[in-house]
Amino acid sequence: MIDFWQRFFDFWLNVPPERIVRLFWYFFLLEVPRYLLFDLVVVVLFSLKRLWNSDTYQAANNQLFAENPLISIIVPGKNEGRHIPKLVQSLTEQTYQNYQLIIVDDGSDDNTPFICRKLEKEGKIDLFLRNEERGGKASAANLALRFSKGKYIVHLDADTSFDRDAIEKILTPFYTDSEIGAVGGNVKVRNSKEAVIASFQAVEYLQTITMGRMVASYLGIYKIVSGAFGAFRRDLVERVGGWDIGPGLDGDITMKIRKMGYRIVFEPRAVSLTNVPTSLKKLSNQRFRWSRSMVRFRLRKHADVFVPDQNFQFRNFFSSVENLFFNVVLDALWFYYVIRLAINNPDIIFLMIVMKMFLYGMSNFVQVILVSLMSERGRQEIKLLMYIPFMSIYDGYYLRLVRTIAYFREWLASSSYDDAWNPRKSSVQAKEHHL
Q1: Residue 52's CB: how many other CB atoms inside 10 A?
Q2: Is the torsion defined by CA of 42, 45, 47, 53 positive or negative?
Q3: β-strand pairing of 180-189 with 99-106
Q4: pLDDT tier at 385, thresholds 50, 70, 90
Q5: Tens digit of each residue's pLDDT (9 = 90 or more) over 38-69
Q6: Among candidate residues 19, 27, 14, the one with its CA nearest the CA of residue 359
Q7: How far is 257 from 237, CA to CA, in rounded Å?
Q8: What is the DSSP letter of 111?
Q9: Using CA atoms in the order 175, 178, 181, 186, what is the torsion angle rounded to 10 degrees?
Q10: Rounded to 5 degrees, what are φ and ψ at 321?
């Protein structure tokens, strides 16, 4: 081991800087400018803009409480009974209390109906609905929409909990601009201490959700209001016909509202906590599902955003192009880069792998430090820095491989329609109607 490190430092300390750039051009030319330098600049601008508009934000917050509109909080899910009491408790502690809570049980085969009916009798759930036969998450969400009465629809996942002012924070942006159609909340990881793989996801969520969506929102290209915590104008959800069959229904409904010309914004101060997968198998299945939607929705269902007709909107065009380029195109380019690098430099391959971990570690370190400085949980999140040295293996190799497999399977075989996440009958209908 000592010999390896001796060789490592001897080699890299004697390599000309231009050769280091040539070897790691993918990192220096593509990832540093986009995911580090650009994000840092935009996050600073985002923060300055928020400071500059603080009076406007406070006025909007006052208007929200003065109007005090009824909102409908809908929670569709299957076999989520064990999470419901904690969710209900989290909502009862909210600073905003004029809400109608609707829980939809999508054909659970556990004790979810018993738990929810008990809470309904106690007055802690306003309405409990049950699909005796499973119809899928979109079906359950649309059933809740049909019985909802609120001016705004807040869509939650049952295993999510919230900071005390989260509902207030996610509603306030609607009062800053009448053209805002949906607001995405900030989703962080609650069970990061349960497994190493959960800790990696905690770092990933800080980078891709807290920071990534802040940047996307500032640029006007924010494209996924998470179903775990998202708020929508009720009239717009009804105009687009509710949720279509997923997977990927979050991004789908967001794009449908964008295409009507409304703004979609991210509110980092509206904080929710969720549980993430603690095994590689469950995480891989989740990411296969998420990544397949990139091809199914961006390239197929919403391909019209690329067509220069009377409905063309540059923001939607740029949003989809940016999403596809940095995920699909650059993933394919990365494999070409890595294979070519290994073929041309077989004698230093392990030195390059360790150097790559160092370079990406430095980049990730800066990102997480910045997010932690801005966070309400900075002291907790700074502890995640211990996982940074290994993040390049997690997101650089593992997640990239999972994403790429998902893209190919969806592109070649439309595998999302075979996903057990939806009941078979729903997937058949979705495929027939190109949903």
Answers
A1: 9
A2: negative
A3: unpaired
A4: very high
A5: 888 988 898 899 899 999 999 999 999 999 99
A6: 27
A7: 8
A8: S
A9: -30
A10: -60, -45
259/316 Cα distance (integer angstroms): 7
Q: Please report the pLDDT score of residue 294 as a whole number.
A: 82
**Rounded Cα–Cα distance for residues 388 and 368 (Å):** 9
Q: What are phi and psi of 411, to 5 degrees?
A: -65, -45
CA 327 → CA 79, 303, 322, 331, distances in Å?
A: 33, 16, 8, 6
Query: Phi/psi of residue 148, each to 5°?
Result: -80, 155
Nearest to 419 by CA among 193, 234, 246: 246
The per-residue pLDDT for 295 is 85
Neighbouring-strand partners of residue 106: 131
Structure tokens at 290: 């998420």
- Please state at what angle helix 38-52 crosses helix 212-219, rounded to 10 degrees: 70
pLDDT at 431 over 90: no
Q: What is the C-alpha to C-alpha distance for residues 151 and 198, in angstroms, rounded to an integer? A: 36
Tokens describing residue 3? 């010999």
Query: How many whole angstroms separate alpha carbon 116 and alpha carbon 137?
Result: 18
- What's the whole-number mean pLDDT along residues 397-423? 85
- What is the DSSP-derived secondary structure letter of residue 208? I
Q: Return all residues near 348 (Cβ < 8 A) that are at least 6 apart.
A: 11
pTM to 2 decimal places: 0.91
Q: φ, ψ for residue 130 (rounded to 5)? A: -140, 130
Continuous segment of H or E residues that includes residue 216: helix 212-219
